[in-house]
Design goal:
This protein has 85 residues and is of the alpha+beta class. The chain has helices at residues 19-30, 49-65; strands spanning 2-10, 34-38, 43-48, 70-78. It is built from two helices and four strands, in the order βαββαβ. Strands 2-3-1-4 form a four-stranded antiparallel beta sheet, covered by helices on one side.
Length: 85
């Protein structure tokens, strides 16, 4: 099974990315995931079930530890190539 994770961290800072946002992005960018897209208002990544769930656990621990007061995330099952949901 493949999963897609979409997430944001708060509080927002429009002038520069806060430490919790930088930590969260680093976790996702260095995880064993593909289709990673980071942006100022949201981030997405895709991967296998285990890889996404491990990355989400690390993302939550590290972003909250770096000062995030809220982490909003959504995890969705996505169809693998050649299959249907």
């Amino acid at each position: 099974m493949r999963l897609r994770v979409e997430f944001t961290t708060e509080p927002f800072d429009l002038d520069e990315a806060p430490p919790h946002a930088l930590v969260a992005r680093e976790v996702i960018q260095t995880a064993d995931l593909d289709a990673v897209d980071v942006g100022p208002f949201g981030n997405t990544a895709e991967g296998g079930t285990d890889e996404v769930l491990i990355a989400v656990g690390s993302l939550l621990r590290q972003a909250l530890g770096a000062g995030a007061t809220r982490v909003s995330l959504q995890v969705s099952v996505i169809a693998e190539e050649g299959s249907e949901l």
